[in-house]
Amino acid sequence: MHKSLKNGLPDQTVDLSFTSKALPVFIDKVNNHSTAQILDLGPVCNENINIFAHLIKKLYICDMFSHLARAFNKGAGLKRWWRQMDYPPGTFDGILLWDLPDRLTDGDAYEAGRRCSDMLKPGGMVVAFAATETKKNTEVNTFVLQKDFHVTFRVQPHLNLPLHTRKTGDLIGMLDPLKSVQSFLFRNGLREFLFRKE
Question: Are the C-beta atoms of 36 and 57 separated by less than 8 Å?
């Protein structure tokens, strides 16, 4: 639950939670492989770890949000930041990108797409979320999974990152060579995408 503001004061409680449409498809496709391996790019969330532990064979976690925040805070070049994604080609059946593209410049969003494609097995899937262009609040949230793929949000105030909202076509183009296979728009202004490595 998030507080909306009116004249700088709390006005009413607004429920921004939603039920994911892409995640059930993602899990179903990934679980066609008997040794399915998924990479979660963060932020780290215990609830998500517990849920995915019951849904897939093996979960890897690499909190790229924390690495990105450290790079920005130190003024370090992002090339050093990308070194964290050093998994061998064709390692994963699925990658949880969450809303990481919203925190990347155009060039780094392209790099994210390329690296995700390299790390995926053929036919591997990626789930990504993105805010609509009208969003102004830059706070970083963890997407917290609940029962039946219902998603709530947990603010991460220590992750002070810029927000880069984009048109849907621009975002899909940046994650090339991954192919967009499904997308959804929710009433809370969030977009959800499912990509596949051809």
Answer: yes
Calpha distance 157→151 (Å, rounded):
19
Cα end-to-end distance, the chain, whole Å: 38
pTM: 0.88
Quote the tokens at residue 7.
């004249």
Question: What structural domains and CATH numbers belong to the chain?
Answer: 34-196 (3.40.50.150)
d(CA 128, CA 12): 29
92-118 residue pLDDT tens: 999 999 999 999 989 888 888 899 999
Q: Which residues contact 156 (CB under 8 A, 6 or more apart)?
A: 43, 65, 139, 140, 141, 142
